[in-house]
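Need a sequence for this fold. Nothing fancy.
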């Protein structure tokens, strides 16, 4: 790909880090709103390296992101900690119900 056809990306808003940097690579997986090639910003999950170099990731429209969150919350509510290897038992039903009602 020649320089005049390169893909441009602009992080419109940093939402949050999903994982810290790998020990050797200094890459951080993040959730951001990103505009690719001057298109409207989309939700974006990918690792970012030194000098804000984007790795391979996924972009989602608002509706896709909303469905991901809803499915994720339903999965977490219904799944045992054995499957998740994380203790979700301390999260009460009111939390889950409020989250789902506002989606």
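Here you go.
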């Amino acid at each position: 790909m020649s320089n005049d056809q390169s893909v441009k990306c602009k992080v419109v808003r940093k939402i949050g880090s999903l994982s810290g940097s790998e020990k050797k690579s200094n890459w951080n997986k993040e959730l951001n709103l990103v505009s690719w090639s001057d298109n409207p910003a989309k939700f974006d999950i990918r690792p970012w390296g030194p000098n804000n170099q984007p790795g391979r990731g996924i972009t989602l429209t608002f509706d896709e992101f909303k469905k991901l969150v809803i499915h994720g919350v339903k999965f977490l509510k219904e799944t045992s900690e054995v499957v998740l290897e994380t203790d979700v038992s301390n999260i009460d039903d009111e939390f889950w119900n409020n989250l789902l009602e506002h989606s």
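For context: The two ends are 41 Å apart (CA to CA).
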